[in-house]
Amino acid sequence: MKEVLIKEHERIDDLQCKGLKIIQNPKGFCFGIDAVLLSNFCEISKNALVVDLGTGTGIIPILIAGKSRAKKIYGIEIQNEVADMANRSVKLNNLEDRVKILNEDLKNTLSFIDVNSVDVVTSNPPYMNAKSGLKNPEDSKAISRHEIKCTLEDIIYTASRLLKHNGHFYLVHRPQRLVDIMCLCRQYKLEPKKIRFIHPNKNKKSNLLLLKCIKAAKPELKFMKPLYVYNEEGSYTDEVYEIYGKESIEK
């Protein structure tokens, strides 16, 4: 790995995936289990072109690079400091030939990547609308959590325009937004094909969902078995440990 500049308050975390690491700032918005679950949920073919919309610190492109044989992975991030951190993580892992971070508004992605040219689009977007509990609209955490710089429709529209016919779109989001998600996906010709609900444990309702859509596909939605994060003893389930990596998830 290359030596890269680590700024004040930043740290390097081990991703427990083929020696990959990531730079994070605990005072900002660090990645969570949702990003890791999404990267594991994706099916990426050899030599695929992948775009991650709202990439944050680059966690999803870096994990996809480690877990797949994708040829090129773009991460789109509007926040300057966060995109800079993602770029340094790419360099730290010697992934410059496969992963490229674009410090751009995702609504401008089509100015940099051709329409109908992408095999896979992923997104772990802000879950809450701009008016939901918003305190500081310019705060990095607020931008990561609220639809300030982009909306759910912006993401789904951009994904549809980028994808080839039969290209795949993978999304992690909140179940309470499911109707909005399904309506927008259908509107922009992204047919929902596979859904999985994530629960804190067997006794609690789902707080996350993973969705796979295929562009211009025929209707038929498969419901996967639920994923439970914690077992009855309060420890992570075996499946979560397998996906995430025990040492990483306990940090």
Describe the structure.
With 251 residues, the protein is α/β, with parallel strands linked by helices. The protein has one domain: 3-Layer(aba) Sandwich (Rossmann fold). Helices cover 27% and strands 24% of the residues. It has 8 helices and 11 strands. The protein has helices at residues 33-41, 59-67, 80-92, 140-145, 152-162, 178-187, 238-244, 246-249, and strands at residues 11-14, 21-24, 49-53, 72-76, 99-102, 118-123, 163-173, 190-199, 208-215, 222-223, 227-228. Strands 3, 4, 5, 6, 7, 8, 9, 10 and 11 form a 9-stranded mixed sheet that branches. It has a two-stranded antiparallel sheet with strand order 1-2. Strand 3, helix 2 (59-67) and strand 4 form a beta-alpha-beta unit. The chain is globular and about 50 Å long. The two termini are 22 Å apart. Mean pLDDT is 90; it is low at 246-251.
List the helices and strands and how they pair.
Layout: E1 11-14, E2 21-24, H1 33-41, E3 49-53, H2 59-67, E4 72-76, H3 80-92, E5 99-102, E6 118-123, H4 140-145, H5 152-162, E7 163-173, H6 178-187, E8 190-199, E9 208-215, E10 222-223, E11 227-228, H7 238-244, H8 246-249
Parallel strand pairs: 3-4, 3-6, 4-5, 6-7, 8-10, 8-11
Antiparallel strand pairs: 1-2, 7-9, 8-9
